[in-house]
Amino acid sequence: MPRLTAGSPARLGANWDGRGTNFALFSANAQKVELCLFDRQGTRETDRIALGERSEDVFHGYLHDVAPGQIYGYRVHGPYEPEHGHRFNPNKLLLDPYARRIAGRLVVSDVHFAYRPNDPRQDLSFDWRDNASAMPKAVVIDETTTRAPSQRPHIPWQDTIIYEAHVKGLTRTRKDIPPNLRGTYSALSTPTMIMHLKRLGVTTIELLPIHGLVNDRWLLERKLRNYWGYNTLSFFLPEPRYASEDFPQDNPLYAFRTTVARLHDAGIEVLLDVVYNHTAEGNQLGPTLSFRGIDNASYYCLNRDNPRFYEDFTGCGNSVNLSHPRVLQMVMDSMRYWVEACHVDGFRLDLATTLARGKNGFERNGAFLTAVRQDPVLSGIKLIAEPWDLGIGGYQVGAFPSQWSEWNDHYRGAMRRYWGGEGSLIGEVSRRMTASSDLFNHDGRHTRASINHITVHDGFTLADLFSYAVKHNEANGEGNRDGSNNNNSNNCGIEGPTTDPAITALRRQLRRNMLACLILAQGVPLILAGDEVGNTQYGNNNAYCQDNELGWVLWDNLGREGEDMTDFISRLTDIRRRFPQLRSQRWLAEGPSEGPYRVSWLTPTGQEMTQSDWNFPEGRFLSYLLGPMEAGQKGIFLVLNAAPEPIAFRLPKSLTYKSWKLILNTTGTKLDSKDLAPATELKAPARSVLAFSGRPTAAAAPAL
């Protein structure tokens, strides 16, 4: 039997079947593809084999003597014509886009450029140097040796509470986790972290990118690194740097799968933040590591008038071309792989507008969104879009199909401005607290379309939001020019840390207000890891390159009175579970109409609000009753007072509820357990959130 036979183009990548390995690589514009095999150390090329079979632009071949553990890479021949969009250079060893494990790490060097960096023609020149010794290489794996999947939790959308975290940053400083596990995949599923997540009441952990990544050269020159991970090179590879000593460094896949299974066993879902919109190869002056050398004109969006340059909708130098069927296939294959082989429960897609771009810009029924909708694997998982990019027409909040949920930055902006002291926002706040129907109530969408958040990895932490008026990103080495200037933050009178007890108390109260609004709002709440313990980045609102204590979650405040709000969040998530109207998938009705729940917006005197009440100058007080349409069920009455002084109000007067009980007061005042009669006059403390539970009358009338 010959060593090399035709093999199959059906499944891309290197796939071992128990006897041998099939290799398949897509390239529409290549003239020849060579498979390069290396020794066990990945340092010496032992064989170079041309894949002679080409079927529908897939070069393929089957090697009978190649088994798991074999290290390999590709050299792809074709025209080097940047002005026509082609950048083939067989002197550059290329990483298989479907690599599931790698050997070695990228050694940053000029040798990875397909052109001569010092040539005045820049990328129009050609470089003859071989880069193999400085390249990570793919490894053939045995995909059958995996931990058996656990039962997926299948948390309904209406019960979902998301916790956004970085794999390393979440646990790197946790002293109650074994030192060899801190900052790794394995640490996420230790009893310590599972107990913490369960105590908070979160159901779903969303991990910042874990796809195989590379560090930007200019960051390394500043002695920094790409910490967040939005610089993907391999869409099928779990990043090796998060593997622990318990799992060999060359097998992060097993470590990640095991962690997912353990989290599932605890009833916790796992979502991945994925970056399919661009790659680590950057613009036309970037390195040639994989896609650019395999088929630049297919994988990337090129400028139509001058294909030497890239269409950069992402701000990262390039944009992946999902309008090409084979590139779309790669992304779909990657998503299915993480669901089927690694058992993740869904994705948050970074700069998702780029993925849905076609000839006419954003296309709601474009190739990618249509493919996901029709895919039997992906149509049943949780999908969250970051609904914008940096290109023309990139802001698309509310425009994604009904299958998708979206990050709702309208919610974030309204809440920051409201609790930051801005008046005349009660109309805006009312819409944001009830799932933003003005944005999402169309085309059969439900309230879960709105992913509500106040803080995420990008921007101030919750503690910094009320400690800094402006960003302080000097540590990033960019002259404080990076990061957003539109933070809607409030330092409460002093910039940065303070020992002033009044300012400290105000900052804590505003944090509690934000958390209360986030978790008691309709839609899906997303909490940033560390906000429960007052984690600070000292005013840095763009800690993407801070793989150190500035970017990690600091757990020093855990257990510290006033700063540790873990129990407070636990109380909020318990309230959310107890009142189904806070979690309803259906839109609220105002007045008598169909629907399971309705809302009544009330003035401080307890009357239904009129148009003049909504337009009250500098209004900062908002109260509303969420009740069921049917009698005999509990109601919840919420009071939001952002005014700097107490405001008198009356409890709802209704035949539906015979008494009210205070169940939340964000000022920290001890709750009084006594029942309160309808229409009782109370005072909402300055800058506070109150919640009352309505005890239903046995034979209540249907109207409020």
Task: Tell me what you see in this structure.
- With 704 residues, the protein is an alpha/beta fold.
- Helix content is 20%, strand content 21%.
- The chain has an 8-stranded parallel barrel with strand order 13-14-17-18-21-22-23-24. Strands 1, 2, 3, 6 and 7 form a 5-stranded antiparallel sheet that branches.
- A hairpin with a 2-residue loop joins β19 and β20 (361-362).
- α10 (409-419) crosses α11 (426-433).
- The N and C termini lie far apart (83 Å).
- Residues 700-704 have low confidence and may be disordered.
Task: List the SSEs and their pairings.
Elements: E1 4-5, E2 13-16, E3 21-26, E4 32-38, E5 45-50, E6 53-55, E7 58-63, E8 71-77, E9 80-81, E10 86-87, E11 102-103, E12 137-139, E13 162-165, H1 167-171, H2 185-188, H3 191-200, E14 204-207, E15 211-213, H4 217-221, E16 232-238, H5 252-265, E17 269-274, H6 291-299, H7 325-340, E18 346-349, H8 352-355, E19 357-358, E20 361-362, H9 367-374, E21 382-385, E22 405-408, H10 409-419, H11 426-433, H12 437-440, E23 450-453, H13 462-465, H14 501-520, E24 524-528, H15 566-578, E25 597-602, H16 611-614, E26 621-628, E27 635-641, E28 647-650, E29 657-665, E30 681-684, E31 688-696
Parallel strand pairs: 13-14, 13-24, 14-17, 17-18, 18-21, 21-22, 22-23, 23-24
Antiparallel strand pairs: 1-7, 2-3, 3-7, 4-5, 4-8, 6-7, 8-12, 9-10, 11-12, 15-16, 19-20, 25-26, 26-27, 27-31, 28-30, 29-31
Helix pairs in contact: 10-11, 14-15
The largest pleated sheet is described as: 8 strands, parallel, barrel
The helix content is 10-25%
- What does the overall shape look like? elongated
Strand order of the largest sheet: 13-14-17-18-21-22-23-24
Mean pLDDT: 94
Total helices: the number is 16
Distance between the termini: 83 Å
- The total count of strands amounts to 31
Q: Please state the CA-atom Rg, rounded to the nearest Å.
A: 27 Å
Strand content: 15-25%
Structural class: alpha/beta
Unreliable residue runs: 700-704
